[in-house]
């Protein structure tokens, strides 16, 4: 029945203060208040409705996304929302759109690679959305290999301009979100050519469309690249294709914080690492780690609540069947994902601090922690997105057949999420960057430069020093193994940041105890999953492995009575979850049944096509081919 909490008996089992855990998950009391208020504002506004998305054509979906983006912007202006509240509103609207790239990449790129003057000119326009930006780096022929990009930016000293050109088909910009139909401007990455010399890839602000009638400017061929994976909401994003035909832009539209071109045509590399050109990717990768904890927690919330509702087998003397959450197999698949959601939340908090710290240091021209920041953002982005994509699929499977319904929310969550393993750096390519960082650290062992920070533990691998010779040859040959070492390094990072979180003051009855259980599940699950490596390297004995397995089962039993409360702590509205299986009151079956009849296919009892195709079949009116 409506209004009845079918999960009340589960919530009554909780052994900790859920409201206190909500604040831990949100990050602070202030963050909780903002998040709670904005999520409820979005959920209560029919203008942000999203339950009909799966029935829309791509053009209807896209137009509806434009409407929502404009409505969200009007809401932000009308309610005088702060930047923090506006970001939360875009998050809870939960629709991939050009605004993600405008706010998530275009603006950070100008802030990180633009001069003070360039920031003063372009950021006010972007913040007021008087221009809409995209991040046009990837091309048809190159995405991972940024230095392989083919778009050219040739300086013309006669006119003090750059000529932006797409010399080959493979140099066509391809994938940039927002580019296909909406963006008026791009940060376009191109190979800089000055005085006939190539100077590597740099960023340029290029206007794409008229601010009067939105028509593409002369020399621009631009459009959408077409439908993407599944029927999911990511088709609301106009990932685009763009070709430049000798487009001229003023010299002051090259982002010149890292390097400059003078009006005389002199190329000047300032004394900052050229990698600052990659700065926007560092920023986005750290936001993606926080997004992973959100996406995984959504899937785990749905699967946990449904696992408590679903009963299958196990009836004794006509009594109720067993809740599937009570099966050890269900717990061994679900609870490590619950622990991972919390683990990624805390490592994401730390990574946000690391990024802010390195940004502050860069402003003082202190580049000492940039390599570590790159390795951490690259590695954790790779680790958390792979685990989250796999985790969302596992949550679908944990929900049996109903997990495959769009009304479960899981197919769309998966379809929207999985490109995170590819965009902002393909996950294996990024792990190779971590491996390169680790091997560089090994090569420096024994020197005066001692490993510090997240690699301090490597002082204990001095014996690896002898493998210093032939590093380059070894690297390529052993890259598959080195990628595994990179994953292990990142897993150590996640566990150590979870442990550090537990060393903080954490208020609320039983809250720290629950987090300790989840931290132990996360760590022991990894030890169990990779026990082959731990055994083969002599790190543990078979007895240790058996003890870890026994302890895991015990820990699952400790989580079981708190599972529903632990996912309630995410404080997601039913609107944001978008899932009948994960609805707060657990009243699943009536909602599933009611939702079925809303499908357009059920608008008529006799389906379109019956009279044309089925009736002739049934009535043998179709001449059957001689068998
Ligand atoms: C719908 C979304 C919702 C929410 C998300 C919210 C916001 C985000 C919005 C949208 C997200 C959606 C789409 C994503 C958009 C994109 O995908 S943008 C394009 C992303 N593309 C990439 O990530 C390309 C990946 N490739 C690279 O980064 C580089 O090519 C490379 C690092 C792989 C290689 O670099 P190279 O310069 O060629 O060579 P290298 O020799 O390997 O490196 C030289 C040295 O530089 C160091 N380094 C490399 N990168 C960085 C960096 N970013 N920062 C600092 N340092 C870096 C490297 O470690 C080497 O150092 P050494 O000391 O070893 O020499
Ligand atoms: C949904 C979505 C949104 C996107 N949005 C944007 C955007 O807004 N702006 C933008 O500029 N780009 C965007 N991209 C593009 C994205 O950044 C690239 O697709 C991504 O960087 C991967 O590059 P690639 O496609 O060249 O992959 P590739 O590098 O071609 O990957 C193919 C395979 O080659 C392997 N590989 C590549 N190099 C090596 C190596 N050195 N060693 C070992 N293996 C290797 C990879 O591991 C992978 O298995 C988007 C992509 C998607 C899917």
TrEMBL record:
It is found in: Peroxisome. It holds the Pfam family ACOX. GO terms for cellular component: peroxisome. One of its GO terms (biological process) is long-chain fatty acid metabolic process. The keyword tRNA processing does not apply. Its cofactor is FAD. The active site is at 424 (proton acceptor). Keywords: FAD, Fatty acid metabolism, Flavoprotein, Lipid metabolism, Oxidoreductase, Peroxisome. Residues 278-439 form the Acyl-CoA oxidase C-alpha1 domain. Belongs to the acyl-CoA oxidase family. This is Acyl-coenzyme A oxidase.
